[in-house]
TrEMBL record:
Keywords: Membrane, Methyltransferase, S-adenosyl-L-methionine, Transferase, Transmembrane, Transmembrane helix. Pfam families: Diphthamide_syn. GO terms for molecular function: 2-(3-amino-3-carboxypropyl)histidine synthase activity; protein-lysine N-methyltransferase activity. Belongs to the ANT/ATPSC lysine N-methyltransferase family. This is Protein FAM173B-like protein. InterPro entries: DPH1/DPH2, DPH1/DPH2_3, FAM173A/B, SAM-dependent_MTases_sf. GO terms for biological process: methylation; protein histidyl modification to diphthamide; regulation of mitochondrial ATP synthesis coupled proton transport. The keyword Metal-binding does not apply.
């Protein structure tokens, strides 16, 4: 009997030890996969799909040299690169993944070309590598971009292959794939610019990278880095060339427009333009990222100089790289100003407008002097017809909605591109008080999107304040409530303005006290409180509690409306 008890006790102890050993092993194995969630920037292990792997290899086609994969995971990118002849290195914090990668490299006979290290990617010196691959997350990309710009500037030729999330301010020379399999092949111009400055100055310069979503020069750059820290500004990416704020007017600014375009982009644009009838009566506008492409179209006589608008520059401290200089001029009596462009002939001389780029600024979309506006997007290989009258009617409808007495709570969004905020706040408050509207000032620095604005679900409209006429911030915000610019808000408050080809007369009267329901054609009422922490309830799902018929009548005074509207 005692033997049986001892045997049972031994089995129990062995089982307990086995369970404990299993538990400790599971913790030891799983801990490296769980701890990334506790770090400041969470970069979890998500294996690259076969599509992502093939897209990365396609982006590396034709390149050579040393390669590093930041966050190499199970090592598949490094091993494939080693098979193609790259001297490939992978850095990874997960001990088990590093061990697995080393064993697999030895089994495949690639251990001479493929090496793996357990190391934090932020401590890696990237200056030794010509090719950098990163499967990143959105939060880390701005910080990583600063590290890349600082450490890769010594390389004559280098490429950054970003997967899943692109670098924020770098313009890709190639985009491969779609969705989560997208790969951005980026070639930074900072290297050549830094080398130019260092070769023309006697002392070594310090460089700072500031990410901003403004389309003009960020006037907060000196404030970000401290007083007397900045002597000059280099501006990459698209720019609407609005005037420099007074706070940084003394700084020299270099605009870099030397973006590399794919030859397929050029062939697509060339084929389309050669088939355009009456090209001589067509005005050509473009994004600044398309300067190189437009210069080539001019050099091969696909476009005529008098049809291509020049970039309007009236700031003496601005300078441009070589390709940009060919399309830049200062305003004088020979040119007609049109937004950020200067045109050799009056606008009425042109019947159509072709805009080369990814989207047409709202300033040009609502201009009714053109019979047809075509968006020519070489990178996406598509063309889109824009109806300017329809676009202007949309903006007018938003202004009318803003005038409504039901539109009381207005959010005014300040971005980091607007100076003299205090002065403008008082001006907006005076307009709002006159029309009995309540103003909420919102400051959004670095990014402006509907996700952040969704937290203000009880507001009836938003006004985006910027120091330029560009509409790119408004175009990027998709909300169920009106999002207007400052000019549109002024019109809604009765200020006289010329907008969308119409002279809006001033209205000095205060808000009317008449019943708003008398103006409605049909009124539909749902739950009065249909928002919760910024989440709008879909009105199609909710059964209306009441439908009331409003005024009846026949629409009139539309004789001048276009038949296509």
């Amino acid at each position: 009997m005692l033997d049986t008890c001892d045997r049972n006790r031994s089995i129990g102890q062995f089982a307990a030890a086995a369970f404990a050993a299993t538990g400790v092993s599971l913790i030891a194995l799983s801990l490296p996969f769980v701890t990334p969630a506790l770090r400041r920037v969470c970069l979890p292990f998500v294996p690259a799909t076969d599509t992502q792997l093939s897209n990365v290899l396609l982006a590396l086609k034709g390149r050579k040299g040393r390669l590093i994969d930041l966050g190499s995971g199970d090592g598949r990118i490094v091993l494939k690169a080693a098979q193609l002849g790259f001297e490939a290195t992978g850095v990874e914090l997960n001990f088990w993944l590093v061990l697995y990668s080393k064993i697999k490299a030895r089994l495949l006979g690639l251990n001479r070309l493929a090496s793996f290290h357990r190391q934090n990617l932020w401590n890696v010196d990237l200056s030794k590598y010509e090719n950098v691959v990163i499967f990143g997350v959105d939060e880390m990309m701005p910080i990583l971009e600063q590290k890349l710009a600082k450490e890769l500037c010594s390389q004559k030729d280098y490429a950054v292959i970003a997967c899943r999330f692109p670098l924020q301010t770098a313009t890709p020379i190639k985009i491969i794939g779609a969705g989560i399999d997208t790969v951005w092949s980026l070639l930074k111009f900072a290297s050549s610019v830094v080398k130019y400055f260092e070769s023309n100055t006697d002392h070594k310069n310090e460089y700072y990278v500031v990410y901003s979503d403004t389309c003009s020069v960020d006037h907060l750059s000196p404030l970000h880095l401290g007083e007397n820290k900045i002597n000059a500004i280099i501006r990459f990416g698209n720019a609407c060339l609005s005037s420099t704020p007074e706070t940084i007017s003394e700084f020299p600014v270099l605009f870099v427009f030397d973006f590399v375009f794919d030859n397929n982009d050029y062939e697509f644009a060339k084929e389309y333009l050669m088939n355009v009838q009456n090209l001589s009566n067509t005005l050509i506008l473009y994004e600044t990222s398309q300067v190189n492409l437009v210069v080539r179209l001019l050099s091969e006589c696909i476009l005529k100089s008098e049809n291509v608008a020049k970039l309007n520059v009236n700031v003496s401290t601005w300078s441009f790289t070589e390709s940009g200089k060919k399309l830049v001029c200062s305003p004088n009596g020979k040119f007609f100003e049109f937004g950020q462009f200067l045109v050799e002939k009056e606008l009425k001389s042109f019947s159509n407008l072709i805009f080369i780029g990814s989207f047409v600024n709202g300033f040009y979309r609502i201009n009714n002097c053109f019979q047809e506006i075509i968006l020519l997007n070489p990178s996406e290989k598509i063309t889109t017809t824009i109806h300017s009258r329809r676009e202007s009617c949309k903006r007018v409808a938003l202004i009318e909605k803003l005038k409504s007495s039901k539109c009381k709570r207005i959010g005014v969004i300040y971005t980091n591109s607007y100076p003299n905020v205090n002065k403008l706040m008082k001006y907006i408050e005076s307009l709002a008080k006159k029309k009995q509207k309540q103003i909420f000032f919102i400051s959004l620095v670095q990014s402006t999107d509907e996700c952040k604005l969704g937290n203000f679900g009880d507001l009836h409209a938003f006004v985006v304040v910027s120091d330029c006429y560009c509409s790119h911030l408004i175009d990027n915000i998709k909300l169920h409530v009106p999002v207007v610019n400052l000019t549109e808000f002024e019109i809604a408050c009765g200020i006289s303005r010329n907008y969308a080809g119409v002279q809006w007369e001033s209205d000095s009267s205060d808000v009317e006290n008449e019943d708003e329901n008398e103006k409605q054609l049909v009124e539909v009422a749902t739950v009065s409180k249909n928002f919760w922490y910024g989440l709008q309830i879909n009105p199609e799902i909710n059964e209306p509690s009441m439908i009331k018929e409003g005024q009846r009548g026949i629409a009139c005074a539309y004789e001048e409306e276009s038949a296509n509207l």
